[in-house]
Design goal:
Layout: H1 2-30, H2 32-51, H3 55-65, H4 69-92, H5 111-127, H6 131-139, H7 144-169, H8 179-183, H9 185-204, H10 224-236, H11 242-260, H12 267-280
């Protein structure tokens, strides 16, 4: 029975890999940029699921259980991304006083961000995860997460119908706070990196160093088949170190931004799904392109 189950998973994985490769080549023939997003999307999704990355879980686990690992992984990824993004944006706009890079989106700053963050944070806590966690849990078969996704799509559908009013009457009048334009590249990047390091220090303060477990028996000259099986298990079955997940995601985000001129995003794509749902039920909404950042 175990061999049958193992073979079933193996062949299913190979079939999914083959279909994914076929989709890539089909997209690359017509829309190479979309094919690029397809590859990065699969890679990001795999790393997220393996490392259990979820922003709301990182914060809730820290405050509820004093589990620092996921929060440290996220801060590590942000540290790496900050350096890479700064280099890319500097190449686009060497003098930040001339304007924000065309490939970047800086949200207007105002009280609405605080209110929206609190409401969205409460919703994520009740749903048991952020949008990232919701998506890969659905892929794992968590039917309850479909309810959370339905709520997200419903909220975004309401937003699309009300966005022109919010944007024209309030949000568009707020300032875009982009640190390099005010204090220069070096000071802005340095301030950001120091802030992340201080947060890392605060999060890890007083953390006990866990001893590395010593194996009871050392296996020498492990057979090749056993080594491959162990490697396969560590990649596809066992959970990944959270810091490693943060590093991989940070580097991948830099590579995506450099090659596709667009950073990794989740809510913008979910908004596109919302647009398709609205069109399917004949409730047209304003074009997504009119909503900055999507």
């Amino acid at each position: 029975m175990t061999n049958i189950r193992h073979n079933y998973k193996l062949w299913t994985g190979l079939a999914v890999l083959a279909v994914s490769a076929w989709i890539y080549y089909a997209l690359n023939a017509e829309t190479p940029r979309l094919a690029l997003f397809w590859v990065f999307g699969l890679a990001f999704g795999f790393v997220l699921q393996r490392s259990r990355f979820c922003f709301v879980s990182a914060i809730s686990n820290y405050f509820l259980f004093r589990d620092r690992r996921l929060l440290v992984g996220i801060l590590t990824g942000l540290f790496i991304s900050t350096i890479g993004f700064a280099v890319i944006m500097h190449n686009q706009v060497p003098d930040p006083s001339t304007g924000i890079p065309a490939t970047a989106f800086v949200a207007p700053f105002g009280w609405h961000l605080v209110v929206a963050g609190l409401i969205f944070g409460l919703g994520m806590m009740l749903a048991g995860g952020c949008v990232l966690g919701t998506l890969y849990r659905i892929g794992e078969g968590a039917v309850a997460s479909l309810t959370a996704l339905l709520g997200i799509i419903t909220g975004m559908g309401i937003l699309q119908h009300n966005w022109p009013w919010w944007w024209n009457n309030y949000i568009s009048r707020l300032p875009n706070v982009w640190l390099p334009a005010h204090i220069g590249w070096i000071a802005a990047v340095g301030l950001t990196l120091v802030s992340i390091l201080l947060l890392l220090r605060l999060v890890t303060f007083g953390a006990a160093i866990r001893p590395v477990p010593q194996p009871g028996k050392t296996i020498i000259n492990k057979p090749t088949g056993s080594r491959l099986k162990s490697l396969s298990s560590s990649v596809f079955i066992q959970g990944w170190p959270l810091a490693a997940g943060g590093i991989i995601l940070g580097l991948g985000n830099i590579l995506l931004y450099q090659t596709a001129q667009r950073p990794w995003g989740i809510t913008g794509e979910v908004m596109r799904w919302t647009q398709n749902v609205l069109q399917a039920i004949r409730l047209p909404a304003p074009p997504i392109g009119n909503v900055p950042g999507t």
